[in-house]
Amino acid sequence: MSKIILANTTTKTYDRALKEKIKAENVKLVNQIVEFQRRMYSDGRHNLLIIFQGMDASGKDGATRKVFSGVNPLGIKVHAYKKPTDKEFAHDFLWRIHQNVPQQGMIQVFNRSHYEDILVPTIEGYFEESYIEKRYQHINDFEKLLIEGNNTTILKFYLHTSKEEQLERLTERIEIPEKYWKHNDKDWETRKKWDSYMSVYEQIFEKCNQPEWHIIPSDRNWEKENHIAKIVLKAFEEMDLKYPALDSELFKEKGM
Amino acid sequence: MSKIILANTTTKTYDRALKEKIKAENVKLVNQIVEFQRRMYSDGRHNLLIIFQGMDASGKDGATRKVFSGVNPLGIKVHAYKKPTDKEFAHDFLWRIHQNVPQQGMIQVFNRSHYEDILVPTIEGYFEESYIEKRYQHINDFEKLLIEGNNTTILKFYLHTSKEEQLERLTERIEIPEKYWKHNDKDWETRKKWDSYMSVYEQIFEKCNQPEWHIIPSDRNWEKENHIAKIVLKAFEEMDLKYPALDSELFKEKGM
C-alpha cells in the first residue's frame, strides 16, 4: 500500500483534551531541540539538514517556525527554493543546492529542495524519462556525499495534508483579508494535478529512501509539529553530542 | 607500465627549427580557441572545465596564460585552489569546488582541484585509507553530475615535469631576483615526497579515468602548450557549436 494513503489525515475530529496535552508536550520538545542545537554547535562534529516537501499550503513555513522557534539564529539557517533563476538554470540542478548545505554545527532547513527538480519536470514533461531517471541517481550520490563527506544528518519530511484540507486552506487565502498575501493563482493550477504529484512523490519515496522519508500527517498542525519534533530529537540523540574539553596550552594543568 | 613514465620528459635537447615551427603553430591554435570560445558562449548549450594538476613549478599558471590568452575574459574564469579555509573545512570537500564549476557557455580553469583532496591526505596520512577510497567515488559521482546534469566537458591535464627540470626551476626561484616571489620553502619539502606523489597520481589516473587524464610532457613549455591546445580544440570540435538562429517575434518574417 502506498505510503501516503497510510498517513492518517482524513479527519479533523479530535479530542480537545488530547490537543491540549500534545501542545503542552510540543513546548517541552522544542525546548529540548534548543538545548541539543546548542550542544551540536559547540561540539562541531555534526550538522543537520532538514528537508520539507509538501503540496501548497501543507504548512512547511509553519513547521519551521514552530519546531525551531527559540533556536539561536546563529546556529540555524533556512533556505526556500523557488523557480530557478537564469543563472541557476545555467548550472546542474544541484549547484544551487550544494551552496546552502549546512556547515559543521549548523541546522539548515530547506523549504522545498532538489526534489522539486524531479517533481516539476516529471509532471510538466520538461525532460525525457531517462534524463529524470539520472536525477534520482544524482540525488542519491549527492546525499551520500553530504553524509560521508561531512557527517551530515539528513531528515526528509513530506508534510501530507489531505486534498480536502488543502481546499479549505487555499479558500481561506481568497476569503480572509489577512491571508490574501498567501494566495497564488498557480496553486489552484497545481491542485488540479494532485494525483500526478502523489504518484511522483511515491516514486521519490521509493527511489531516494536512504536516508528514509518521514510522511507526516499534517492536517492538524499540533500533530504535525509533534511528529517532526520527535524525529528531530531522535536524530540529535543518535549524534552523541558532547561539549568539548578545554583546549588550552595555558591551562593544561587543570586537566580539563 | 605507468602512465607517467611513458611521458617523454627526460631531455631538453631539441631541434631549434622544430621549436620555432611549434611556436608558430601554437599561435594559430590559440586563435582557433578564441574563436571557438566565442561560438560556445553564443551557442549556450556547452561549457568547458579545464583541470590542471602537477607538481610545484610544473607550469600550470603558464599553461593558463599561454593557451587561453586572447579569450574574451567575459567567457573564461580561473580559480586557483589553496589550502581550504576554516569555512571550507566545515563542509564536504566538494562544496567549494561545486561553487566554481562553469555555467553554460563558459570556460572554467581550475589551477589545482578536488584531486588535491586525495593527494595531500593520502601522503600526509590525514585520513584512513577507507575514507579516502570514498573520495574517489564521490569525485566520480560529482564529475558525472556535471557531465550529465549540465553538459559539461571536463578536460583533466597532468602537467608532467621531470624531477631534474623541477630542481632547475625551483633553484631559479632562489637565484634569480625576478623569480624570488615564486619561492616557497614548502615546495622543497614536497619535493622530497616526489615518489609518493607519483604513486598517488597513478592511482588517480586509474580510478578517476572517466573522463580520462591527459599526461602532458611539460619540460618544454612550447611542447606542453601545443599538446594542451590541440586537446582543447578537439573537445570544441566535438561540441558541434552553432551560432543560434534569430529569436525574435518582431522579425519573424525574415525567416532567420
TrEMBL record, chains A, B:
One of its GO terms (biological process) is polyphosphate metabolic process. InterPro entries: P-loop_NTPase, Polyphosphate_phosphotransfera, PPK2-rel_1, PPK2-related. This is Polyphosphate kinase. It comes from Putridiphycobacter roseus. Keywords: Kinase, Transferase. GO terms for molecular function: polyphosphate kinase activity. Residues 19-241 form the Polyphosphate kinase-2-related domain. Belongs to the polyphosphate kinase 2 (PPK2) family. Class I subfamily. NCBIfam families: PPK2_rel_1 (TIGR03709).
